[in-house]
Write a structure and sequence with these properties.
Layout lengths: L1 H24 L1 H6 L6 H23 L6 H20 L8 H20 L2
Helix pairs in contact: 1-3, 1-5, 3-4, 4-5
Length: 117
């Protein structure tokens, strides 16, 4: 079971890397007002959702304790990120506020995952 959990953790990290990487590559464009949500950002967020749900299930099946408050907050942040990216994915330009919100929520999600014990 540990190997399977570790595989899903690795996939979860790949998802967050795709989401954050897509954001960081658009920073210069954000300064010019031409930033957009890339497909990598949407796919990264979806990967995070699927692997995160799978990780919770696998950890509970393995009789490990799961902090439901922490998972609930991370899920809520991810749903907001997904909603923003999904709704505005086809727009040529995304306003700065929505773009910064996705970056800030993604960063907050990373800090919640790593700092909250």
């Amino acid at each position: 079971m540990d190997v399977l959990i570790n595989v899903f953790v690795a996939l979860h990290i790949i998802g967050i890397a795709s989401l954050l990487g897509g954001f960081l590559t658009q920073m210069k464009a954000m300064g010019a007002g031409t930033a957009r949500f890339t497909p990598a950002m949407l796919h990264g967020a979806l990967t995070m959702l699927v692997t995160g749900v799978a990780l919770v299930g696998l950890n509970q099946a393995d009789d490990q304790t799961v902090n439901n408050v922490k998972i609930g907050i991370k899920l809520a942040l991810l749903v907001v990120i997904l909603a923003l990216v999904y709704v505005k994915r086809d727009e040529e330009k995304v306003d700065k506020g929505a773009f910064i919100a996705v970056g800030a929520l993604t960063t907050a999600n990373i800090f919640i995952a790593t700092v909250w014990t």
